[in-house]
Amino acid sequence: MALDKLLEQEAQSEIERIRAEARDRSQMIVAQAQERAQALIESRQRALETQRQAGIVRARSAADLDLNAARLTASESGMSQVYELVNQQITEITRVPEYRDILGRLIYQAREVITDAEAVEVNPAEAALARELVHDIAVRENPAIQGGVRVVARGGKSGITNTLAGRLERVRGELAPQVSRLLAE
Predict the structure, then answer these.
(1) Residue 145 and residue 163: Cα distance in Å, rounded?
(2) Residue 104, C-beta contacts closer than 8 angstroms, at least 6 positions apart
(3) Which GO terms describe its biological process?
(4) pTM score, two decimals?
């Protein structure tokens, strides 16, 4: 019986050793699985956070673009209104007494450029005034000319138009930043 007991104890020891190894191995497998799971969770959280941050950046960029587009639209609308108002003022300025001096300067400046001028063209409403200012060449009526003068030479093949609206248009690009700044204030 002692041999049976000895064999039984030995078998029991072997079983306990195998169980202990299995327990250790299973704990190690579980720990590794938990580490991998935790690493995967952290990786996914980082990826989600990165996506969230990218989404925030995209949303901010889209909002900035929308805001800038709205500002640009408002600025363009304001600029259009300003230039429309200025053009109305230019039309009205032709009716004030000081316009005689303005038209005289416009004619003089255009004739400085076209030295061999044959005629001065003005709006029919300004023809009488132009005839008072120009005595050495013909004054013709041209309904297309508004608030200024066109001086022609060489049978109409050469000429220059010098109008208030034309001058405004030439400096419009230079004035745009200043007008925009004033509108923004």
Answers:
(1) 8
(2) 133
(3) proton motive force-driven plasma membrane ATP synthesis
(4) 0.56
